[in-house]
Design a protein that fits this description.
Pnp Oxidase, Chain A, six-stranded antiparallel beta barrel, 3 helices
Length: about 140
């Protein structure tokens, strides 16, 4: 088995907190995140492409585990990050909040007009979900 290369940067790194404003800026610029939730007594973390709109996370899905988590009225975690192995830098943003299926006509039309399409073409992915953040936090490694 090959041994991973050692990062080229040898200087010290520092961990710092991001402001909510910085977190929101990163949410606007990052196209893919991961949602975390419980289903059938197990933890799940699944990737989704999304938009950050009106201070909410919006994504498209199909019937299944994600919608079950939404219907169960549990808090949902949503995370985006970026890192650079060579420079040993990066950041992470965590959103925790309540998720809800978008069922009203105006909300559905707004979501449909976001230009957000699933990566894997699946005609069953015709449901929209929004996560209303209760907490937004972030960290940066410099």
């Amino acid at each position: 088995m090959a041994v991973p290369a050692t990062p080229t940067t040898s200087g010290p790194t520092a961990l710092g907190e991001l402001t909510v404003s910085e977190c929101k800026s990163l949410l606007l610029r990052t196209p893919v995140g991961r949602i975390g939730f419980s289903f059938a007594g197990e933890q799940h973390i699944l990737p989704v492409n999304y938009r950050f709109v009106d201070d909410t996370i919006v994504f498209r899905t199909s019937a299944g585990r994600k919608l079950h988590a939404v219907a169960s009225d549990q808090n949902i975690a949503f995370e985006v990050d970026r890192w650079d192995r060579d420079s040993r830098t990066g950041w992470s943003v965590l959103v925790v909040g309540q998720a809800e299926e978008i069922e009203d006509h105006a909300g559905f039309e707004t979501a449909e007009n976001l230009g957000l399409r699933p990566w894997a073409e699946d005609p069953g992915q015709n449901r929209w979900v929004r996560i209303v953040p209760a907490k937004i936090t972030g960290r940066r490694i410099t």
